[in-house]
Amino acid sequence: MQIPPDLSERLFLDQAKDFSYVIRAISMVGLNTLALIFLDFHDNPGVFWRNIILLLTAAVYVVIILRGQTWLRRSDTSGRDAAQYFRQVSAVLVALGLLWGVLLVLLMAHGSPNQRSLIYAVAVGCIATPVLVSPPSCAISYWAPTSLGAMISLMLYDADPYAMTDLIAFVALTGFCILYLNRRMNERAIGAIRLEENAEVIRLLLRDFEESASDWLWETNAQLEMQPVSQRLVQVARRPAESFHGVFPEVLLGEEALRAAQPGSAAARLQHAIAEHSPFRDLVIPVNIEGELRYWSLTGKPILDKNGRFGGYHGVGSDITGQRRQQEHISFLARHDSLTKLANRMLFSEVLHQCCEKAGTTGFALLCLDLDNFKIINDTLGHATGDAVLVAVAERLKGSIREFDIASRLGGDEFAIIVVTSERSEAQAIAGRIVERIMRPFRFDGQFVQIGISIGIAMAPQDGTTPTQLMKCADLALYRAKNDGRGIVRIYDPEMDEAMQARRSLQAALRQALPRGELFVSYQPIVDLMDNRITGAEALVRWEHPKHGIIPPSQFIPLAEESGLIEDIGTFVLHSACSAAASWPLDITVAVNLSPLQSRDPQIVDTITNILASTGLPASRLELEVVESTILEAGSPTEEALKQLRGHGVRIALDDFGTGYSSLSYLRSFPFGKLKIDRSFIRDIGYEKAGSSIILAIIGLAESMNMLVTAEGVENVEQAELLRSYGCAQAQGFLFHQPMSAEDFAQLLDSQASGGNVASAPHSPAF
Ligand code: C2E
Ligand code: CA
Ligand code: CA
């Protein structure tokens, strides 16, 4: 048998000890047998040699006893010493075996038939005793010569074939037993050593376990009474060990924690497992420790006795409050927006899914919200203020909904809210309240900031029962709210779907419009208010759709911006306007609208200078109209491009002034050549004092900064008169001229060049 190297030493030492005891006992019996033989055979012949051999044999026994004795007394023995001990004793045992062999032959030679029976019994005893001895090398050392002696004695003096056969069989049996039993004994010894070692390891681990972290072991008896608890549990539970006398789990967790257990909760599952005497694992139970809520994780296994009867539980427990809080924090972070602390997109979509599942019984409204012009705040006031606005908006959103509604930030300046109601009117009222509250100015660092919000609403289950359907509907409604002027609430209507379809097909048609020559440019004259003479014209793009007729730019320019067509269209307008202006009889300016997207094109300066060069129009006759959102990022590539163009002599006009985010600071930082007062101010002129004073302020400001001013949308004589009295230099509007074709405009200029009264000219057909 192969003995594992790590065990051989231990095994050897154990064997040597056992061997010493056994061999000592055998030697005593051996000495006793020698004495019997001496007494029984003293009359027999051959006394001299027999007594010599008896004496020698007895001496060998004594040697063996003494050697065993010294071995047992030694304490500093090693495996190697044991091996040496076995070798020595083996040699002595060979001698002992030989002596016994010779003795048996001598005794047989001179023994009477009665005595021979005794000798036979002694021989059998001698052959059998090595079976008790381990290791086999020692056993064989003695067994082999004795067996040989016994067989020779039988053969020489009592050649009874039956006795002989029996002896041979017995010798074979004992030989087999020596080898077989030794092997089994070794196996058992190894198993025992391993078991002992494992037990030691487990003892160490358990001690380590008890001493570490906040884990503890617990145990109950068959009546589920808690067995004495560990010191660790006493510490964790912050109560004395005596307080744990009682029935598990009540005495451990407190009756309160278990009574309040919800079906399906860990506490309920624990009670269920215990009632069934089944195992349970990692059940996390909230417990109250001196008024503090903590979480314990419990694992338990039933103890079964030999007959499979329940004998109690044993298990481990640990206080996982720290881990749990950390997990809660992480899962909060994963499910909430770090800036506003509102639910994030992930959590919101989970809640929306749940709401959709119950939509059949509990209707709800999905609100999609989008801040108006948030980008402008971010760009002009900086990201820190932008963030502060988002946080403040989130606060106001939370304050505008009920505790069972849920608000979330989906990203950027997009928010969504689930309002638990099946009433459209209630959803609309809440949305209206939100718009009104968000509109109130925020104050940051002594500075007032105002922002609007647009809201689209979809109702479940009427408008949809899946998150995708509802989001689509609410988005469509939001899109409509934005288009209808921002700061508005719109509720989804199936007509919005059709409108979206129509937009899509219009977008597809727009792609073809330019190559098919469906786009053209109209010109609206700009007049000098002092003498009504034309001082310039604004180029306005038109699309003549083969089926729908003329489509206004307010409809297709946003489509072009969305689909990336705006750059091609813009270049087309610039080219048309510049080549038209180059052919005009008067050196007046042509104004071209520049979309914010177009002005972000890194090629824009090259494009415009190339167009000016190819059409031969001097840069000073081109005016570019930009809106406030185009210019807001100081130091941006757009601002750089506009400055370069201005350097070439192109005038930059600020269009629709007063409608965007009215921070006047950029008027100072960017040198505009002209301000165009939006027509919403002109419309109210004369009726509203505030409107008039704003116009007066704008005109004063423009004058002080050396900018021209054009009033847009002048539709009646009163407006023109008032503007004139305010000192506004230029005007544009239906009172003077509608936008007209390039040819009509050229004719108009011709008549002005030849001295005609152009301002009161009959209106040409409108484009
Ligand atoms: P806008 O730049 O403010 O252009 C002036 C708009 O006011 C024009 O509308 C014009 O027809 C209209 N208008 C002129 N006088 C009056 C008036 O007395 N009363 C009223 N109610 N309206 C008047 P239009 O041509 O429909 O253009 C709308 C907007 O489309 C423009 O507003 C401009 O922002 C954009 N747009 C037009 N052409 C282009 C273009 O070529 N490129 C870009 N990017 N945008 C363009
Ligand atoms: Ca314009
Ligand atoms: Ca305008």
Please describe what this structure looks like.
The N and C termini lie far apart (109 Å). The strands form four sheets. This protein has an eight-stranded mixed barrel with strand order 12-13-15-16-17-18-19-20, surrounded by four helices. A five-stranded mixed β-sheet has the order 6-7-5-10-11, sandwiched between helices. Helices cover 55% and strands 17% of the residues. By secondary structure, it is α/β, with parallel strands linked by helices. Bound molecules: ligand C2E and calcium ion (2 copies). The site of one calcium ion has 4 residues, from loops.
What is the fold's blueprint, element by element?
Elements: H1 5-40, H2 47-73, H3 79-110, H4 113-128, H5 136-157, H6 161-211, E1 215-219, H7 231-237, H8 250-253, H9 255-259, H10 266-275, E2 280-289, E3 292-304, E4 310-319, H11 321-335, H12 345-357, E5 364-372, H13 374-381, H14 383-400, E6 406-411, E7 414-419, H15 424-439, E8 442-444, E9 447-449, E10 452-460, H16 467-483, E11 489-491, H17 494-513, E12 519-528, E13 534-545, E14 549-551, H18 553-563, H19 566-582, E15 589-593, H20 596-599, H21 604-615, E16 622-626, H22 628-631, H23 637-647, E17 651-657, H24 665-669, E18 674-677, H25 679-684, H26 689-704, E19 708-711, H27 717-726, E20 730-731, H28 742-753
Parallel strand pairs: 10-11, 13-15, 15-16, 16-17, 17-18, 18-19, 19-20
Antiparallel strand pairs: 1-4, 2-3, 3-4, 5-7, 5-10, 6-7, 8-9, 12-13, 12-20, 13-14
The structure holds ligand C2E and calcium ion (2 copies).
